[in-house]
User: Fold Cytidylate kinase from Synergistes jonesii.
Amino acid sequence: MEKKIITISRQFGSGGHEVGMKLAQKLGVKFYDKELVDMLAKDGKYNADFIEANEEKCSPPMCPVMPGFSMPVFYQDLPSDLIYKGQSKLIRTLAERGPCVVVGRCADYILRNMNPVNCFVYGSLEARVNRKMSMIPEGLSFTREEIKKRVIDVDKKRAKYHEFYTDKRWGRMEDYDLCVNTDKVGIEGAVETIAAYVEHCK
Amino acid sequence: MEKKIITISRQFGSGGHEVGMKLAQKLGVKFYDKELVDMLAKDGKYNADFIEANEEKCSPPMCPVMPGFSMPVFYQDLPSDLIYKGQSKLIRTLAERGPCVVVGRCADYILRNMNPVNCFVYGSLEARVNRKMSMIPEGLSFTREEIKKRVIDVDKKRAKYHEFYTDKRWGRMEDYDLCVNTDKVGIEGAVETIAAYVEHCK
Assistant:
């Protein structure tokens, strides 16, 4: 099998990060998710906290991008735009080095000229809230309602971010090659499913 | 692997019928698509032509179903409703007999209490038109525009049918377990992908 560039977009709480990580291990390729934050921070322009606070966010909410334009010119110096530009360049450079799995950060759009396999990992709201509830660090306490609100809010932000910087709609089936619901198959099942798909990709 | 009931919804021209057929062969389970027309016709109430002309159509277009109701009472004697009721009963009976693959006909909704694996097979409009162009029988002639219009029209009818008889939206990712685009993997790749998913289903 020719090794591919795989992008994974994911609903919050669906396990998309773990799916991407295990998929990269299985295929023996590089994996980039939060690693991108540290790598960009190493460039020295911004520190990791600043990047994390401003990445995957759309600075001016509800401002749609015009088809054919990556972002309106008058917004180009906002923090999230600086991060977007830096991360885009970094993601392209890494993908040019060889096959990899990239999670989030509009990688499906940024790498569109490199024929990536674009996957979307999702799940029912109930299952995603359950997963996040089970991941609350010891000593902290959140109600189910608080977690549910966070799950919904993060996805809203991801959708806005994607729609602001690309001409695609986040989570619309037609914009992906494969969409895997983890409710019934878990992380391992999703990894095996994506691997089977990638193996047959032309 | 415990054998499952698998439903396949499909965009017209995506190859969903062939995917379902080959998947059933691979898994060694029964396959139902157009077979349902003949089986219902054998019951004797309606002939196959009448069924084919009225199945997977929504009699009164644009009339939404109320959540919790399968259809408005005053429409229950229209031809497509008679077919829907007959096919629903038949699909449930067949699924109760054992694992199978059922294509279209709202089987995902009809069998919702039997924990089916619900798949959606789709593709780009261009690829779907290409597939249908390649399937034009010898001696017949259609323009690309005519085929494109047919592809779009059939899917509109399927969407209306599904939305009329169920409380789900046809082709909305969240209503399926797995959504496979056949553009890059073809029929065989889609079959292997679904088989990998089904193998890991709890």
Notes: Chain A has eight helices and five strands.
